[in-house]
Amino acid sequence: MTDTHHVRGTVWAVFGHRLAIEGADGRTLADLGPKGAEGVSLAVGDRVSVEGEHKPTEIKVTSITVGDGAARAIAWPKPHEHGDADPAAALATVKAEGYAIEGEPTRRPKHFEIMGSKDGSTHELHVTLDGTIRKVKPAKG
């Protein structure tokens, strides 16, 4: 469940795709995200209204209205949205590096964990979804 928060006030600072708003409840940091900030022109002193998911340090804005204009929706990508990543590229990379694969790969949000043995030692390899080995560490006994 998300905690939706509404803030209305005056922009008192702009930091890239984030803006600080002074409103009835004090100052609030609002994050539009790099894609959401595209095409939105904001300056100190602008009146804005934002709505979004309340996080500990800011609001992840899902809708912004500048002045008396129309509300503009801002879509955020889903965390770790990578679809059905195929482990074939990861397995091919591990084999090409000379490892004998032990067991099935484990899917993580941003990588696969693959157990492999080489030169008499077993390792846990972290392989990105595009097939790049990111980390190799000794397997826990």
TrEMBL record:
Top-level division of the source organism's lineage: Bacteria
The name of this protein is Uncharacterized protein
Species whose genome carries this gene: Methylobacterium aerolatum
